[in-house]
Design brief:
There is one protein chain. The chain contains 13 helices and 7 strands. It is an alpha/beta fold. The strands form 2 sheets. It has a 5-stranded parallel sheet with strand order 2-3-1-4-5, with helices on both faces. The chain has a two-stranded antiparallel sheet with strand order 6-7.
């Protein structure tokens, strides 16, 4: 962990938060690994507040004014207005251009080796201080003692840990072939306020495979430094109640009431997720079923390519390396 700095306001708008602040359950992994669903479940637990993917707060929330999980534009959401006031004296005091510059400098998967070696320490502290201010303010405003951040970005998790946050890491996994198939689909973004940002990006199977390998290796490395656990999407949907308790055990809430979680359904309420998968706008009773459309919908050539590229970690995480309709080896 980095040394404490004297409290002062940084160009990003945050005062150094001092002590570690509330425990942050950080959901790390590559996108389309079930993190939004897990975040929704965790956010309904008493004493827990789920914030969504805060890595996008500065651009999508503050600059574009995209919709919060509650349905209101971010800039009109009472919860986020209170968080901004508590953390920065108002969002108008945040230098979003500075946050973008810091993100470019330290918050990229390619920067993790340098971060782990202690490079860019001042930038890391400043960048982490803004997020820690948001986390602490959200806990105070909501009355929660635990914050869930589903940003997934491994470099942000590293920056938070190195910047003094109390990170509890959940390494979220999904079969690489399912991830690749999901990223190949067209997915609308209902929170968008303009056509230019109306769809989520799409990535090739080769790109997803490379990112899947890189992110998982870098998450494992951080897991050696902070309290952590590994959770496969396939295991979560098979037994959401037990796996949710395992995650909550990282923050001492293993025995929290879970009336909203059964073996085959989840009761999902409205949250103030600042960014994330479109399913954050799904409310009410949601059946729990594994999304396995990739088994029949993914082109055979793509499945074979992803399997060949990712097989060392597929085996490590107990996934089949068969080229057929792959199944978990568990």
């Amino acid at each position: 962990m980095s040394a404490q700095t004297t409290p002062e306001t940084s160009p990003s708008g945050a005062a150094d938060p001092g002590p570690a602040g509330p425990p942050v359950l950080y959901l790390a992994g590559i996108g389309r690994s079930g993190t939004t669903l897990l975040e929704r479940v965790l956010g309904a637990v008493p004493g827990v507040v789920a914030l969504g993917e805060t890595m996008h707060l500065w651009e999508r929330g503050l600059e574009r004014g995209e919709r919060c999980g509650c349905g209101e534009p971010f800039t009109a959401c009472e919860f986020w207005a209170a968080v901004g006031e508590d953390a920065f004296g108002g969002w108008e005091h945040v230098d979003t251009a500075r946050m973008a510059a810091l993100k470019q400098r330290v918050d990229r998967a390619s920067r993790v080796p340098a971060l782990a070696a202690g490079a860019m320490a001042d930038d890391v502290r400043e960048y982490a201080a803004a997020y820690r201010a948001v986390h602490a303010a959200a806990a105070r405003v909501s009355g929660a003692r635990v914050v869930v951040d589903s940003s997934k970005q491994v470099s942000l998790a590293w920056a938070l840990a190195l910047g003094g946050a109390d990170v509890r890491l959940v390494h979220c996994l999904r079969d690489a072939r399912g991830v690749a198939h999901s990223w190949a689909q067209e997915v609308a973004r209902p929170e968008a306020v303009d056509a230019a940002h109306g769809e989520m990006p799409r990535y090739s199977a080769a790109t997803v495979s490379a990112l899947w390998l890189l992110h998982n290796v870098e998450i494992e490395a951080l897991g050696c430094r902070v309290p952590s656990m590994r959770l496969r999407y396939e295991d979560f949907v098979a037994d959401p109640r037990t796996t949710t308790r395992e995650v909550l055990s990282l923050v001492g809430l293993a025995h929290a009431p879970l009336p909203h979680v059964t073996h085959d359904a989840l009761e999902l309420g409205v949250t103030h997720s600042c960014a994330g998968n479109p399913m954050r706008y799904t409310h009410g009773s949601v059946p729990v079923r594994r999304d396995e459309r990739w088994r029949t919908g993914q082109p055979v050539a793509q499945r074979r390519a992803v399997t060949a590229l990712t097989w060392p970690l597929l085996r490590r995480y107990s996934y089949s390396t068969s080229y057929g309709q792959a199944a978990s080896t568990r």
